[in-house]
TrEMBL record:
It comes from the Archaea. Residues 213-313 form the Radical SAM core domain. SUPFAM superfamilies: Radical SAM enzymes. This is B12-binding domain-containing protein. One of its GO terms (molecular function) is iron-sulfur cluster binding. Residues 45-157 form the Radical SAM domain. PANTHER family: RADICAL SAM DOMAIN PROTEIN (PTHR42731:SF1), SLL1084 PROTEIN (PTHR42731).
Length: 316
């Protein structure tokens, strides 16, 4: 079997952008299967945001772990013709998958050097420890990409992208010896968020149908063992009005009235109880993320039940 196949899905909200021959071509690669990848707000947001940029076109790729094959979702183009591939890695295990994928398509940094496509990795695991990727990818982003994504995309379209990439504070170039500073969005209201979220019509996504909504980043508890809480420090949340706008806009084009919330510390958001009642008033169902046991109350359990959730995940 070929190491890369074109496998478009029957999707709603798929963006059809024809593009021009000279457009900057960006791949977005998730080293996980399609059904899991569509839950990633990076995947959703980068696809929408990059395709909205003038003179740029984005192509999505997912990894079918079982068949060990990379699946192109948007077009049957030569992956070597891309200007850059953005690779999102949340877990250390993803490093192995990414190494395997890039080796199979002959794009490992160790062999191709800094030739295009420029391989840009980011995510929680990458921010915590980029060093194992030194022979695998060209560039890593330390922290959150929101505020540099636009400039980074136009820079990789240049003939000498590295010259410019090394000027970004939170970008590090292989072998990642320089001290990059972690980027993070101070005001989460200004962070990127997908509203036109694509979803498959004939295979139910993990977590089910519904728009994915990031309400907060970071966690105020900062448990010593928890990497995510520290990597995403400090705890920030979007204003209630902004979250409501994302939901209204997102549900306009979605086939079900359901919201899947992403948050490390959902009930630490001051307005969240009021907000959940507002969803009930509007007959919107919701999926609530993992809860801290000390924040579970009888009233909240009743609200969660009314929102249509059947099971909860709680930890101390
Ligand atoms: S409460 Fe949970 S998410 Fe927050 S720091 Fe502790 S383990 Fe991490």
């Amino acid at each position: 079997m070929s190491s890369i196949i074109y496998k478009p899905r029957k999707e709603s909200m798929k963006l059809i952008k024809k593009g021009k021959p000279n457009d900057i071509k960006i791949g977005i690669l998730m080293p996980i299967p399609y059904n899991a990848a569509i839950n990633s707000l990076f995947f959703q947001t980068a696809y929408e945001y990059i395709n909205d940029l003038e003179g740029v076109i984005a192509y999505r790729y997912v990894y079918n772990i079982r068949d060990d094959v990379l699946e192109a979702l948007d077009a049957e183009i030569n992956i070597n013709n891309l200007d850059a591939i953005l690779i999102s890695m949340s877990f250390e295990l993803d490093y192995i998958y990414v190494a395997r994928i890039l080796d199979k398509i002959n794009l490992l940094h160790r062999h191709k050097g800094f030739k295009k496509p420029i391989l840009v990795a980011g995510g929680i695991a990458v921010t915590a420890n980029p060093l194992p990727l030194a022979d695998i990818v060209d560039v890593v982003v330390i922290g959150e990409v929101d505020e540099i994504l636009r400039d980074m995309i136009y820079v990789v379209g240049d003939n000498e992208p590295l010259k410019y990439l090394e000027t970004f504070n939170c970008v590090s170039i292989s072998p990642f010896k320089d001290k990059a500073k972690r980027c993070f969005v101070k005001d989460l209201n200004r962070a990127l968020h997908a509203v036109k979220q694509f979803f498959p019509l004939n295979e139910e996504p993990v977590y089910g149908y519904g728009i994915r909504v990031e309400v907060s980043r970071g966690c105020p508890y900062l448990c010593a063992f928890c990497m995510e809480g520290h990597i995403q420090y400090p705890f920030r949340y979007r204003d209630m009005e902004i979250v409501w706008k994302i939901i209204e806009k997102g549900l306009e084009s979605y086939m079900s009235k359901r919201v899947i919330f992403y948050s490390l510390a959902f009930f630490s958001i001051p307005y969240i109880d009021r907000f959940l009642n507002k969803l009930i008033e509007h007959s919107i169902e919701a999926s609530i993320p993992s809860l801290r046991v000390d924040q579970v109350t009888k009233e909240r359990l009743n609200v969660i039940k009314k929102l249509g959730q059947k099971t909860i995940n709680a930890s101390s």
